Amino acid sequence: MIAVAAVLWLAVIVAVAFGYYVRYIEPAQMQVSHVPVHFEALPPALEGLTIAHLSDFHCRPDRAIEHSSREAIRLTMAERPDLILITGDMFDTCEMARRCAGQLRGLSAPLGVWAAPGNHDRAHEDPFSCLEAPLEDVEALRDVLTEDGIVLLANEHRIIETDGATIAVAGVDDFAYGRDDAAGALRGTDAADLVILMAHTPDILDDPSVAQADLILSGHTHGGQIQLPWVGSPWAPVWRDRRRASGLLRAGGPLCYVSRGVASATRARFRCRPEVAILTLRRGTETPARDVPVRRPSRRPERVEEVVR
Question: What is the separation, in whole angstroms, between the first and last Cα of the chain?
């Protein structure tokens, strides 16, 4: 009887310790991931250029979330990247943009700081209602980011010139609310030496238009948050393939990096530390990317939008 009680108490202690670890310890262990990305036709001017890829800050009035944001910014600026790209969910809801703008303050880079919106950036105060926030609130997000030196790209792109080479930085609007237009974002980027597409969810890989990009950056998955030995992530918010949950992927032609994110709406991580990804551009063909399948239709299906009254 004593042995049974001891085993039960041990199980309770282990469960409590595990819960404490995944809730408080690992989410605070921010990791800097250095990732070389090779392109065969990379111009010499872009050799060694560094890109800081950030995603999923989920800024809100929460001390732990604010600490994660500040730590991510500190680690990013310590790397002195040439370009900073943020792939959505800067805020937990778009109403948080004004209240928590300071949590994103301090980012800067010679080639600029650019962002694409995520589903939480477009969400109503109650994200579980699945209602999109009013457009005026979404535009307020753009204004807040501009004040902090961050340019929001929603189905549009900009051309950056550096040492005679050109980089097209494009951003797709949110996929969850049916506002994504990858073709529109990439239109006019053909002449660029390197085309980078920011899209919050890696499900954008199934859009045939993204084949025009050289590098796709995404977030949304938080890496699956829980990574089990020999199993991987039991669940990740991707529609078709959990192998898209994190890391450097090869999706047909383009390379894609999926960030594990800075934070998350649900604060729990196991073997899936939050990250600041530093991508370094290199000339060559040796990029060790994981191949993932894509399901690209021959033509883009028309969207059916539900009107909620």
Answer: 62
Residue 73 φ/ψ, nearest 5 degrees: -65, -40
34 within some domain: yes
* Across 263-292, average pLDDT: 87
Alpha-carbon distance of 136 to 124, in angstroms, equals: 12
Average pLDDT, integer, range 59-66: 91
The predicted-structure confidence for 146-203, as pLDDT tens digits, reads as follows 999 999 999 999 999 999 999 999 999 988 878 899 999 999 999 999 999 999 999 8
In a domain, 295, yes or no: no
Alpha helices in 21-171 (DSSP H): 63-79, 96-99, 135-147
Alpha carbons 295 and 206: distance in angstroms, whole number: 5
**Integer Cα distance of 36 and 75 in angstroms:** 18
Residue 202, SS3 per DSSP = helix
| Domain count within the chain | 1
List the domain range (segments joined by +) for residue 276: 2-290
Q: Please check whether residue 107 lies inside any domain of the structure.
A: yes
Q: Is residue 306 part of a domain?
A: no
By the 8 A CB rule, do 91 and 127 touch? no
What CATH number should be reported for the domain holding residue 174?
3.60.21.10
pTM tops 0.85, yes or no: yes
**Contact, 199 vs 172, CB < 8 A?**
yes
